[in-house]
Amino acid sequence: MIFTCKQIARKMADQKLHEASPMQRWWMKLHIKMCVVCGSYQRDAEKFQHAESKFAEFEEGCQKKLAPDFKEKLKAQVRESQKK
Amino acid sequence: MSKERDPEFWVEEYSDYLFGFAYSRLYDSHKAEDVLQETFLAAVKSIDKFDGRVSVKFWLRGIMKYKIIDSIKRDLRELNESELNSFPEVNSKIFKTAGVFSRKVADWDFDPFQSFEKEEFWQIFRKCLEKMKDPLRSIYMMKEIDGIDAKQICEEFNISHANLWVITHRVRKSMKVCLNKNWGDTYK
Predict the structure, then answer these.
(1) pTM, whole model, 2 decimals?
(2) What is the ipTM of this complex?
(3) B78: closest CA of chain A, how far (Å)
(4) Among A30, A40, A42, B60, which lies 20 to 30 A Cα-Cα from B79?
(5) By CA distance, what is B37's nearest residue in A?
(6) Treating both helix axes as pointing N-terminal to C-terminal, what angle do B7-26 and A36-61 enclose, rounded to 10 degrees?
(7) Residues B53-94: pLDDT tens digits?
(8) CA distances from A26 to A2, A30, A34, A46, B161 (A)
(9) What is the pLDDT, as a whole number, of residue B20?
(10) Which CATH architecture has domain B88-184?
(11) What is the CATH number of domain B3-78?
């Protein structure tokens, strides 16, 4: 059972390694351990996943201000929409 | 009427937050306003479906994610056919014919985990994201930042899983180049 870097990278990207059978997982882990490029790709993907979840938290804390007149317009629209 | 079922209260309380969320995905104030408007109107229509299992804020944000997808799809329709066809190909230069990586991933010029603790880093991260080309950026953000299911994204945008993987790979690669350039030199 030989996996290519391409197959492993896709499974890592979709976080689907856990869906593989124990035997498939073993072969994939072996490949990642033996293959310098896949190993560095996996470490890199983990760093990005960490960055992306941290960025989502950072974005939560950053609010943009909506123009007050647009806010009032929205209120009028939802009021009107409720009547329908 | 309880406040959480009062649409005017939603506008007063959550419109700034939702506008910021839409803006951070679309990078266009007018489009963000349109999406915000569509979100509130859709929420009013489906108010009976709100069961209180999640807070109103996140229920509204859930609706907004679909409105953002619609907005991006509208943009895509406006693009001409050749632009649509320029979606990255599966058999791009990332892999050799035998499915082996064609080159090692580029190094980070700084310590990522240390940088993640600094607020300034996230400002640079956002600026780098802004530089990414749409619709690749939006699709990447939906998958990796908003955690929208890959299957759903592929169906919405009519792209294959392999194509989605290439999009993520390319955006991350460009993000690293941008971060190395704008952050790496200062904080090595």
Answers:
(1) 0.81
(2) 0.80
(3) 26
(4) B60
(5) A74
(6) 140
(7) 889 999 999 999 999 999 988 887 776 544 545 555 544 567
(8) 11, 6, 12, 19, 24
(9) 92
(10) Orthogonal Bundle (1.10)
(11) 1.10.1740.10
